[in-house]
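Sequence design from tokenized structure. All designs in this work follow the same two-part layout: the structure record, then the generated sequence. An example of the structure record is given first.
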């Protein structure tokens, strides 16, 4: 949705309408494409547990980076706290999910 309707998606997340401009829309689209690309990499590595574990670790780092940036936006009070808070939940939960997947694969590899 961020790729096709970035303005509407931004408002849905709670970012101020005044911040909806061409730059914000481009960045939103880049963010959407990045997440699709990360997911496609995992999809294509489905038969390779070692590669999946590596990608899960990379995705966890990306989501952790997103979370850190969002926390920074909340703390600095730049008028986007509501949008940043609503974006923080998926970033943190994604990070946790990728870490759990990576650990599960590592544990399964250790059992072999």
């Amino acid at each position: 949705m961020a790729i096709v309707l970035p303005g509407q998606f931004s408002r849905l997340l709670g970012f101020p309408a005044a911040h909806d401009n061409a730059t914000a829309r481009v960045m939103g689209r880049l963010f959407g494409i990045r997440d699709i690309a990360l997911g496609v990499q995992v999809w294509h590595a489905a038969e390779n547990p070692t590669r999946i574990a590596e990608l899960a670790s990379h995705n966890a780092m990306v989501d952790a980076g997103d979370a850190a940036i969002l926390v920074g936006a909340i703390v600095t009070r730049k008028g986007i706290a509501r949008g940043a808070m609503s974006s923080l939940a998926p970033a943190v939960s994604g990070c946790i999910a990728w870490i759990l997947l990576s650990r599960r694969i590592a544990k399964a590899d250790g059992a072999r």
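The chain has one domain: 6-111. We note this feature because it recurs in several other targets discussed in the main text.
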